[in-house]
């Protein structure tokens, strides 16, 4: 069975999504792409993002890192709080994060795009909803937000493909999917005989 370079496929998908859209500036594309790659914690994907959308300056990278790190904390915390329905819990800035205006963010709108990318990777959907509303308040269209979500989804797929390619889960030619290998002898064992 031939192996395919799914990494290449997803790089092409990302390129296609970037080149076909006209709603996001390159600055916002970079914020989304770098935030998604950093949140995926995948060095190979980060390198591909650099190749696809270019290097960014240190100030913008700092903004993106703030977004990714803050979303790592807030996404997990608020998902837990919303699931547990704890009473008398402070909801607004419960983690006492530095206010955004004190962070010296270069481009607030691009920062919120980075936040939605990180939220999507983290599956922090209550935070995602909040940041989408902030983008709408800044007059960003639903179509532009959707373009950012599609870019993020393609980067998540790229990270997943990279993980799968690194694992190279290939069965020996003489083992069918209804068999496994004995860890000691390497002999083929039908699934019904496994204990």
Q: Count up the helices.
A: 7
Strand residue percentage: under 5%
Q: Helix share of residues? A: 55-70%
pLDDT < 50 stretches:
none
- SS-derived structural category: mainly alpha
Using DSSP, what is the number of strands?
Answer: 2
Biggest sheet descriptor: 2 strands, antiparallel
The overall pLDDT average reads: 81
Our Rg estimate from Cα atoms comes to 21 Å
Plain-language structure description:
The chain is mostly helical. It is 63% helix and 3% strand. The chain has helices at 6-20, 26-40, 43-53, 58-84, 108-122, 125-137, 142-167, and strands at 179-181, 188-190. Helix 2 packs antiparallel against helix 3 and helix 2 (26-40) crosses helix 4. It is globular, with a radius of gyration of 21 Å. The two termini are 30 Å apart.
Comma- or semicolon-separated keywords:
195 residues, mainly alpha, 3% strand
How would you concisely characterize the structure shown here?
This protein is mainly alpha-helical and 195 residues long.
Helices and strands, with pairings:
Layout: H1 6-20, H2 26-40, H3 43-53, H4 58-84, H5 108-122, H6 125-137, H7 142-167, E1 179-181, E2 188-190
Antiparallel strand pairs: 1-2
């Amino acid at each position: 069975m031939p192996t395919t370079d799914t990494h290449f496929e997803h790089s092409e998908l990302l390129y296609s999504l970037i080149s076909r859209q006209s709603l996001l500036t390159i600055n916002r594309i970079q914020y989304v792409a770098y935030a998604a790659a950093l949140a995926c914690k995948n060095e190979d994907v980060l390198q591909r993002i650099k190749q696809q959308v270019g290097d960014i300056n240190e100030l913008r990278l700092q903004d993106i890192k703030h977004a990714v790190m803050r979303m790592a904390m807030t996404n997990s915390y608020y998902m837990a709080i919303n699931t547990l329905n704890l009473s008398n819990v402070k909801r607004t800035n419960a983690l006492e994060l530095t206010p955004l205006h004190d962070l010296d963010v270069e481009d607030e709108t691009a920062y919120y795009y980075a936040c939605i990318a990180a939220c999507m990777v983290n599956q922090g959907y209550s935070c995602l909803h909040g940041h989408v509303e902030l983008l709408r308040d800044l007059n960003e269209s639903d179509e532009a937000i959707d373009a950012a979500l599609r870019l993020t989804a393609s980067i998540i797929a790229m990270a997943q493909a990279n993980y799968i390619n690194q694992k190279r889960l290939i069965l020996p030619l003489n083992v069918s999917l209804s068999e496994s290998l004995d860890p000691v002898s390497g002999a083929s064992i039908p699934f019904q005989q496994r204990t």
